[in-house]
Amino acid sequence: MRQAWRVADVRSAEEALMAHLPAGTLMQRAAAGLARRCALMLDQRVYGAGVTLLVGPGNNGGDALYAGAMLARRGASVTAVVLDPERVHQAGLKALRAAGGRAAATPPATVDLIVDGIVGIGAKGGLRSGAATALHRTLERRGRRGQRPVVVAVDVPSGVDVDTGNVEGVAVRADVTVTFGCLKPAHVVGPAAPLAGELELVDIGLRPWLRTDPAILVPDRADIARALPKHGPGDEKYTRGVVGIATGSATYPGAAILSTWGALAGPAGLVRYAGSAREAVVQAHPSVIATDRLADAGRVQAWVVGSGLGTDDAAATAVRMVLATSLPVVLDADALNLLVDGAMADLMRGRSAPMVLTPHDREFARLAGEEPGADRVGAALRLAAHTNAVVLLKGDRTIVATPNGLTYANPTGTAALATGGTGDVLAGLLGSLLAGGLRPEVAAITAAYLHGLAGREAARHGPVTAPDVAAALRPVQAALTG
Ligand SMILES: NC(=O)C1=CN([C@@H]2O[C@H](COP(=O)(O)OP(=O)(O)OC[C@H]3O[C@@H](n4cnc5c(N)ncnc54)[C@H](OP(=O)(O)O)[C@@H]3O)[C@@H](O)[C@H]2O)[C@@H](O)CC1
Ligand SMILES: Nc1ncnc2c1ncn2[C@@H]1O[C@H](COP(=O)(O)OP(=O)(O)O)[C@@H](O)[C@H]1O
Ligand SMILES: [K+]
Q1: Is the CB of residue 119 below 6 angstroms from any atom belonging to ligand 1?
Q2: What is the pLDDT of residue 234?
């Protein structure tokens, strides 16, 4: 599990660590890691390479200057474009000059590598105009072989909001981000996350000094493989869990077919369907046991209710019946819209069994009374606390937040999933994982992770539809656990 910490926590840890070290040690560690990665990005052909440092007024610029000095000593032609000469890191600039580098107002003609040391964890807002101009000018340059320069960001791509991952205005798009001590939220959530490119974490000794509860957890393949239920010779369909699906309608049978499809790809031993799309569901999936009425559905270990249900009386009755059980529940799409009703919301808040709400941004806004806004993690946490439910806020980096303040970010998102019906597949899979006995937040992040992998797998074969994503769920799990 990767972990990310907010700026204030990084600053406290840094202060505690620095008290035990000679001044400047951390910056030297950071710069050494940065220079090593820059050399790698130049295929180790450092001698003669054109390196341009974009140097802001803080320690982020200092890191870039010391790394530039190390590259200059290996024969690179290093130019520092200093954005605010009065406030530049003086010792860093001196080191660069002593190593043969130079400072200039504009980038040189040849640039193989750009080091973005404009701003790091001290950032406020998008890039200021001087910094943005210098960036654009440098990006227009070409390398020794006429190629586009490689961009290495120092700590974070400049211009992003480090604590929220929001991007307001111009920001750097990096090929690689070399970060120090720990990941920060901007590396893993919001529109900032894809701007970081590949992430490299340089160990500067900060870890023991960081608080034990990180702001965000990011699962990797091994975490997800571990979370998935294991089946043994003693299993039968009922011990694996039964998931009940109350989605779709005569008007929207597709939603029912897709959510049962998602459920069938999960660990549950049996999928039951209850609703007016019964015939279509059984035709599409013969192994599903289907009834017209929820009351006749039989026993299940978790319910999925919502998408394609509509918001009429029958839909409201279905949601009410599911909420009245003491079983884990996934509330998706139309169920979320019905929760805006006060009595329904009270029913939800009064439950003690696990619940997962799966809103996209518009559903979130209706439910919470406000857009998720710039701080998606904060918004998801607030809604989770208010509803006493786990919230899975959909997006490129889907966020899972719990009522007691835990946050996960999904790293496998892909824009290929931005197509009708993929959310139905996700809800079904999530219900199956709940029925399989996973804790709600673990079920939610596991579903998002597998769903993202399935989206990527489906995209390898061309434009993606929701059935492609559902069909890819099983092979990606086989690859993960095999
Ligand atoms: N923590 C650690 O353990 C370690 C930290 N290290 C390094 O230190 C970095 C943090 O350094 P830092 O605190 O000096 O702040 P930093 O990010 O350089 O920026 C501050 C300056 O930028 C300016 N500025 C602000 N916003 C801006 C914008 N949008 N566009 C343009 N400019 C903007 C702002 O100007 P002002 O608002 O004052 O006018 C201010 O002067 C950290 O990211 C890492 O690289 C490593 O060396 C070792 C271990
Ligand atoms: N730009 C995007 N990048 C990555 N994932 C996306 C993007 N847009 C949507 N998704 C994902 O696609 C799914 C869409 O779900 P949803 O909006 O409920 O669609 P539908 O209601 O059509 O099923 C979610 O899992 C969401 O995270
Ligand atoms: K930076």
Answers
A1: yes
A2: 86
